[in-house]
Fold this sequence. Notes:
It is elongated, with a radius of gyration of 21 Å. The protein has helices spanning 4-18, 39-46, 149-157, 163-168, 178-188, 201-220; strands at residues 23-28, 50-57, 60-68, 80-88, 94-99, 108-114, 118-123, 130-134, 261-265, 268-272. The chain is an alpha+beta fold. The protein has two domains: 4-134, MutM-like, N-terminal (N-terminal domain of MutM-like DNA repair proteins, Alpha-Beta Barrel); 149-272, Helicase, Ruva Protein, domain 3, CATH 1.10.8. α1 runs parallel beside α6 (201-220). The strands form three sheets. Strands 1-6-7-5 form a four-stranded antiparallel β-sheet, covered by helices on one side. It has a four-stranded antiparallel β-sheet with strand order 2-3-4-8. Strands 9-10 form a two-stranded antiparallel sheet.
Amino acid sequence: MPELPEVETVARGLNQLVAGDVIESVWLGSKPEPLKSPAREIVLTLERAQIGGVRRVGKHIVVDLLRAGAGKSKARNKPVDKAQWIVHLGMTGRILVCRAGDEKLKHTHAIASLRSGRELRFVDPRRFGRLSVSSEFAARGAEPLEVQLEAFVKLFRQRKTPIKSALLNQSLLSGVGNIYADEALSRAAIRPRRRASSLRREELRRLYLSLKEVLQEAIALGGSSVSDYVDANGDQGSFQLQHRVYGREGEPCLVCRTPIKRIMITGRSSHYCPHCQK
DNA sequence: ACTATGTCCTGCGAGC
DNA sequence: TGCTCGCAGGACATAG
């Protein structure tokens, strides 16, 4: 499940592979397309655009596009038109860099053919992913790796919802998903069911630091490959080997040997050590 | 404004 | 073996 570290890893890899290349044509699969923008708008925006770079915003992959202005512009006409291709991988979405002749996988929903002879293919069995185009894409929530402590504290002070749910709320923080919410709470020694508003300042400070730490460590290891996540080169991440609670129900806590518990919090499985986390 | 719940979608593993 | 069932979960719609 691509969260911030996985999306960061994919975006960096894609940037290495395709920055500077040019999208020559676009194919969109039929029927229920996973599109947030109208299909024709996506095609018009992507075709003939040069890829300026690929980066991450929250859990979104942002492909910065450079498009020559229509026709031979007079000087005052916008010479280069900025746009972005936004890809959200959802649960099972992948972007593959292929050769044009490569076999097309089932659940391929979009293909962008590049001048280099390669193709960018969007494949997503579960169809939770989304494609769109934008001219000024911005995430609603704060970037966890950039937010300051004071702003972080403010996000949670008044919330009555469980801290686990608040961490997953993308309009507060962008990029935190189920794995890293559980792992950050584990490192901060806070139970996921605690009301956000019940956390003392010191606890919020621990959570703030733990979240940054776990995200940075995960990025360094290329993310967590739990089900089928792989990066832009098809390689697995290795941070799943560092998980302290996620996916370890019944296994001993690495600190105190107490079995890790799994509970449901607003429909999301949540893992924690009942002894270490208060 | 905030919170909780249901829905989407396919693959896979548990259980019988 | 083959079947059903429930779960995986990010984001959004809807209801309270």
